[in-house]
Each structure stands twice: as C-alpha cells, then as structure tokens.
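Revision sheet: structure tokens.
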Amino acid sequence: MGGSVLLVSIGMVLYIWLGKQIEQGVEPSAKGSADYMIILGAKVKAGGVPSLSLKSRLEVAVPYLTKYPHVKVIVSGGQGPDEDQTEASVMQEYLEQNGIKATRIIVEDKSTSTYENLVFSKELLPKDTKKITIVSNDFHLKRAKYLAETLDFEVDVVAAETPKSVEAKLRLRERAALLKTYIVGY
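Predicted:
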C-alpha cells in the first residue's frame, strides 16, 4: 500500500512539474533579432489541408514574417504514411498564398520528428547561424527549444495557440515526450 501511494505521489509531482516546464516554452518571445525562422511541421489532412495545429502555426508566422521582412523561413516537415503531401509543401503554399515571397522560403521536406525538423533544417542554414526563431504550438515549444539548444542554437519563439479541441490530448502526450527527451536526449 505504501509503495503505491509513493508512486502516485511521484507521478503527480512529475505531471505538475512537466506542465510547468511546458508553460515556460513560450519565452523568450521573438522580436525579429534572428535572421532565420523554422516552422515545425504538423499533420496534413487529405488534399493538403493543414491540421488545426499546423494552421495555427502558419497563422502566427505570416504576420511575424510580414513585420520582419529580413527574416527567411524554413518550412520543415516530411510526408507521413497517412499524408498525401509533405507538410513543408503545404506550409510553403500557405505562406505564398498569404503574401510571403517564395525567395524567403526554404523547404525541408524529409523530417519525420521534431528532432529531425531541427537537424535537417540546420543543414540548410549558413554554417555560422546560431540564433533562430522557432514557430510551433505553445505546448510544443519547451521541447523544441531544448532540442534546438542541444544543436547549439540560441532560440526565441513565436507561440501559436493550441486548438482547444485537441489541447488536453496534446498536452498529456507532450508531457510524456518531454520526459523522454530529458531522459534520452532527443
């Protein structure tokens, strides 16, 4: 009995602590100081329709890129087995349709995870690039920043809201992913 109470207590503390870690992900907020932005991919539905999570990322990226015309953007995301287009191609099309010039968009379309988004995007950046801006949903930014910092990046962020319809599920899943990242390193 005492062992199970201890395990439940540890689980609750861990759950709360991971939640606080996730909340810290939205800082520091980007203010145009990085020359490169990476928009992390998310699910694409049939016909190249961005999922709610991906759409919210794109919706915050467009005004930021409009405000800071010197920033180039990497759209990062491959094609999952249940996707009919790469996430990067859908993001590129959305950005272009919303006034972002194609000359500012760099396409990374091989990645299948957050870590790969960052590793493969790093290969497309000038070698001396240290500072980047990451765009993702608020729940995802702590882990994305942590992974980017392991790749020697200095990171600021543009936080997209998490769609309410999937928020509880994604925040729970992200706690597990963040814990795994802290333990395994990626």
